[in-house]
Amino acid sequence: MIIPKSKSKLITIVIHILIWGVFGLIYFSPPLNWNIVVPYQLWIKEIIILGSLAVAFYLNSFVLVPKFLLKNNTGIYFLIIVGIVIVVVLLNIYMDEWFNIHKLMDAAFHKSGPPKHRRGRDHSWDFIMLANIALVLGISTSITTIQKWQKDKQMHQDMEQDRVSSELSFLKAQINPHFFFNTLNNIYALTHVNAEVSRKAIHQLSRMMRYVLYDTQNSTTLLSQEIAFIKDYISLMELRLTDVVKIEFTAPAALKDMAIAPMIFLPFIENAFKHGVSATQPSNISITVSQKDTVIELNVINSIIKEQSNNLEEGSGIGLNNTKRRLDLLYPGKHTLVINESTAENIYLVHLTLNLS
Questions:
Q1: Distance (Å, rounded) from C-alpha 229 to C-alpha 265?
Q2: Domains and their CATH numbers in the chain
Q3: What are the beta bridge partners of residue 292?
Q4: In this predicted model, what pLDDT tens digit does every residue of 289-345 receive, in sequence order?
Q5: DSSP strand E in the chain: where?
Q6: Closest residue by Cα to residue 278 from 246, 248, 249
Q7: Could you give the 3-state DSSP secondary structure of residue 295?
Q8: Cα dist. 330→245, 260, 289, 323 in Å?
């Protein structure tokens, strides 16, 4: 999951506040069993050490990880990290010696109770310091690499969306001429039969062209508009059909409008008219659009006519092929497409299910 940029920045700020809040509590909250007055030199030392940890954290985050670790210069990176660890540990030792921290703490303990016999510096604190700087650098590296991964993933997603958008535009540009070529060819045939009917067909086509050219410029359209477009298309196709062809179209009685990819159903319906009707042989086409909540189903059943037609794009299959590709790009994991051709029953069946949630 990709986190929005504004939310990601807020989370980063909160994480940094929590990190330094925890380290602040560690360095400036003495153990509860220390019933002593802590010398101010110790507070100064802790401030300097905490500042050095902060410098190491952000130097690693903004410089070392991006410029070395993420660019596969791991050898140089780890050498610099070892150097930083040594510097911070030596700084801790130097601060103890310079401020005489162990003597001041002995004096503070002496005032609050029996003297504690110490033989000099307690080296266990050096190992604690070593663990602290390692923890700081580890957290810094983890946060930076995760942010880089998120940024790269977001960039990849943006590039993929641009690629998909460009490809969908190209696919849609192919589908539209495919539809218009076939429809104009049908109108051309009508002009030789009935001029009045051909004028009506031209009017219907102009209304459909308006939908395609203006109403489908966005990536989605309303389901009601898409169904109205299908009705116009079927009505236009029926103008050239004879009585031997039976057309049935069923749409949802109580349609729940929602967004859908424009002209996603048309190629399957167009294919049925292209290969499922004949001027002489009895043939039929059944088209059903049903809706259940956010799931839309399209069923297209047509008889198979073996005659060779004279369509302008005969055999190209541009519409169906590109629609399959559009479905893969627009509804990955949210669609099923089943196409069956039964030679025994002489029918061609398309069943498309879309989840529009």
A1: 10
A2: 5-157 (no CATH), 160-355 (3.30.565.10)
A3: 295
A4: 999 999 999 999 998 877 644 443 444 445 677 788 889 888 999 999 999 988 777
A5: 221-222, 245-250, 259-260, 283-292, 295-303, 335-342, 347-355
A6: 246
A7: strand
A8: 34, 10, 19, 10
As a dihedral over the C-alpha atoms of residue 144, residue 145, residue 147, residue 148, rounded to 10 degrees, the angle is: 120
| Distant-in-sequence, close-in-space partners of 304: CB < 8 Å, separation ≥ 6 | 275, 276, 341, 343, 346, 347, 348
Tokens of 140: 């810094």
Strand 283-292 and strand 245-250: the pairing is parallel
Q: How far, in Å, are 61, 100, 151, 335 from residue 6 at the CA level? A: 20, 48, 13, 33
User: Which tens digits make up the pLDDT trace of 107-139?
Assistant: 655 555 554 444 445 556 668 788 888 899 999
DSSP-assigned beta bridge partners for residue 347: 303, 342
- Check residue 200 and give its pLDDT: 81
Helix, strand or coil for residue 285? strand
Contact predicate 190/198, CB 8 Å: yes
pTM given for the model: 0.55
Helix (H) or strand (E) holding 334: none
